[in-house]
Every structure is written in C-alpha cells, then in structure tokens.
C-alpha cells in the first residue's frame, strides 16, 4: 500500500450537504485536464442529490451525469470545522452511533470497528456555550486479528453486538 494510512470520523449537517449538492459540480474533459466547475445549464433535472420518489424513473441523462460527475465543486463543511477524531495506521470499516442524555447534556457515542478487530469508542458533547468536545474513551480488542464485519446497538440489552456474536 502506498501513501498514508489512517481514518477519520467526521460529522456533517444535512444543510451543509444540501448546500454542496445544490451548488456546482466538477467535470474533467479528459484524464489529463483539470477538474473545472460545470455550467449550471448543463446540470440535468432532477438535480443529482435531490430526493425523488422512485430512482428507477430517473432519465438516462441524469444517471449518465451522475456517473460522469462524481464531485461537487465545493466541499461539504465539517461540523465544528474539523474531524471529530482521526488516527494514523488504523482503517475503520464499520461505525454505529448512539445518542444519550445524561444530566441534561446530550452525548453522541461513536463505535468504530477496524479492519484488525478493534472497536474505538468515542464521545462527543457540547458545553453550555456551544463549544464542541470529543474524546477517545476506550479501545476494545474484540476480534483481533480478524476484521470487524458488522456492528449494531441493541436497545433491548444496551450492548454493542458484532456479527460473530462478540459483545462488549
């Protein structure tokens, strides 16, 4: 494998995703040319990224545009303008998220399963001024060295379940 290896957990608001998809898209006229914004008049209707009742009814022009224009011109802005967590030399494969309220404070708990069988537990919260905080709480050795294949949160037993019946 060449290059840097690592993973990040980022959060985004639906409004920032809508903003990027309602803007311009990028196109590349050849494999040697730069990616440039597409003229608004060239974007088909319904616009890629918009909701439709049945995707099977989308015209071929829309599907072809989506295949050949995979990039939005502007990036989707992270919540709090930064990743919630990032680490090198780890590849996250699966993620589940749980929201909890304790003493009036909302916490978002992230469980990220790795390709080497570990689960990272992270927590995010906001203080009274709206400042965001996040912290790596624990790293569980669940199925090492085998990759985490699936995860889910059980509301009945308040545990995290993995596909190979491991529980933490």
From TrEMBL:
Segments forming domain Sema: 1-168
InterPro entries cross-referenced by the UniProt entry: Semap_dom, Semap_dom_sf, Semaphorin, WD40/YVTN_repeat-like_dom_sf
Pfam families, A to Z: Sema
PANTHER family assigned: SEMAPHORIN, SEMAPHORIN 2B, ISOFORM D-RELATED
Protein name, per record: Semaphorin-2A-like
Organism: Limulus polyphemus
